[in-house]
Amino acid sequence: MKENERLQKAIEATITAGYQLDNEAFNYLCHSCEGMDPLAVMNMVFHEINNLKEKPFFIEKNFLENMVKQLTQTHQAAQATQSGKNQFASQTSKNANPTEAEQRTQYTKTQQPQFKPLPIIDENIFYPYAKYIPSELKILEDATGKLTSNGTLEEYITLFQDRYKRIEKILRQRIDVKAATPIREALKSQPKTKLKIICMLTEKKDNKQQTILSVEDLDSNATVLVPNKAPDEVKKKALQILPDQVICIAVIKTKSNLFLAEDIIFPDVGQKTIQKAQEPVYAVLTSDIHVGSTKFNKEAFKKFILWLKGKYGTSEMRKIAGYVKYLLVAGDIVDGVGIYPGQQFELTIRDVHKQYDFAIKYLEKIPNYIEIVLAPGNHDTSRKALPQPAIPSDYLTAIEGKTNIHSVGNPCLVNIHGINVLMDHGRSLDDIIAVVPGMSHTHPEKSMRLLLQGRHLAPVYGGKTMLSPENRDYLVIDKVPDILHAGHVHVLGYCNYKGVLVVNSGGWQEQTDYMEKLGLVPTPGKVPVINLMTMEITVLDFKTEN
């Protein structure tokens, strides 16, 4: 068994026995017991404590130090015993008799230490393992403070040019795309020439016979025909292309300036090795709390907070809570004011400042050793156009001085315990669901998978998702994350796509009138929890009684 696995077993044994290590003792067990098996050390501790009349609740460092000394002495005594046994066996091997054999057996029994760990099982004791794990949180990419747009036409041109160049670079890293030809040169080719062009889709027309794609690059434009006789896989890909998406198309030049599509190649992500943390810490993913809404399920959310404090749930749920180190919230912390017509009739709090004050009061009750990352959504007070800067500090005055609560922009790339998490509220999922056949709110992870395939978080311009014309397109997925986390659609959904854990975390709002009109059935109170050491997901339901 590996050293970190032995340490984990030792900690689990301590929890099971009903004890807790104080901070100094925990650090000593992790870093100072060189050459010692931590599980053996804790077994000695349990044996010693079991003989005490008054049993301590917390195990202190000096107690562990004494156990290590005893274990060292025991080891040395065992070595001496073995040496004595070897000498004894050598001297008597030529003249052994039953009496001497009995002597040897008795000698062994009296010299070797006998340990009987007797754990005291108490499932009512909560052990916050994560409290003693140092935080490893880094904000890798966040557009907050870097946004300079004035909304001019020239800035929009710059935005799309930047998008094209960066996704073209991603595409050209593929072996099957490296030799792609600019559209201007492709148009000069002889009929029946097979080529590959990198282009941005400007318009798509579908009918029963064919799909017509209008495309362009930085210099020229062209028309690509996907005929009805094309392979089913190519026709399926054509249906999945989103407006303003950058792709590569394998084409055949016709006698005119028309191209026939043979294949469509998305930037996509390559199969990646699943990254894992080196110790058992957990991350909770959630979004769409909507504090202030009449549909906010505050009872389920209160249970959620009690669970994080180790005061709610089954023994297994509370054991998981003890390992939670990170809480990542992907937008819509509050319901906002004036977001849609008639919203005032669906609010319990009609002042957005007070909505945030109430939200922070909930978050303040979460143990302060848990790192909380807050990103905005379309209901928050940050601007609506993407990328969104962090929620203005005027609305979050209550978190000033709280070192465990971090306000970031949308999207944002964070690293937790060596795991890269790309947080995106998910507003663009509405556009994908409206454009691509087969996509629905019921399975948001499928739409999120298309974002990874296109390497962009909001490719469609002119839909429900507003885009700000920055001089850099912050929505291009340059770095492939280990986890893609979104919300917005209020439905829990997750999958693993080529080594990337794709999670839509649902939310805390019951079905609104608007959702009912859409036929959208939310999943409030269901929370995905990720073990960063195994990258396995456990879904906890706080609407049901536990």
Largest sheet: 6 strands, mixed
If helices are DSSP runs of H or I spanning 4 or more residues, what is the number of helices?
A: 14
Unreliable segments of 5+ consecutive residues: 88-122
Whole-angstrom Rg: 31 Å
Strand content: 15-25%
User: SS-based structural class?
Assistant: alpha/beta
Q: State the end-to-end distance.
A: 34 Å
Strand order of the largest sheet: 3-13-14-15-17-16
Question: How many strands?
Answer: 19
Can you summarize this structure?
By secondary structure, this protein is α/β, with parallel strands linked by helices. It has 14 helices and 19 strands.
Describe this structure in words.
This protein is α/β, with parallel strands linked by helices and 546 residues long. The chain is built from 14 helices and 19 strands. The protein has helices at 3-16, 23-31, 38-50, 61-92, 98-111, 153-172, 183-187, 232-240, 298-308, 315-321, 352-364, 429-435, 444-454, 513-518, and strands spanning 20-21, 58-59, 137-142, 194-206, 210-216, 221-227, 246-253, 258-265, 282-286, 324-330, 371-375, 405-407, 412-416, 419-423, 483-486, 492-497, 500-505, 526-531, 536-541. A hairpin with a 4-residue loop joins strand 18 and strand 19.
Give the SSE map.
Layout: H1 3-16, E1 20-21, H2 23-31, H3 38-50, E2 58-59, H4 61-92, H5 98-111, E3 137-142, H6 153-172, H7 183-187, E4 194-206, E5 210-216, E6 221-227, H8 232-240, E7 246-253, E8 258-265, E9 282-286, H9 298-308, H10 315-321, E10 324-330, H11 352-364, E11 371-375, E12 405-407, E13 412-416, E14 419-423, H12 429-435, H13 444-454, E15 483-486, E16 492-497, E17 500-505, H14 513-518, E18 526-531, E19 536-541
Parallel strand pairs: 1-2, 6-8, 9-10, 10-11, 11-12, 14-15, 15-17
Antiparallel strand pairs: 3-13, 4-5, 4-7, 5-6, 7-8, 9-18, 13-14, 16-17, 18-19
Helix pairs in contact: 1-3, 2-4, 3-4, 4-5
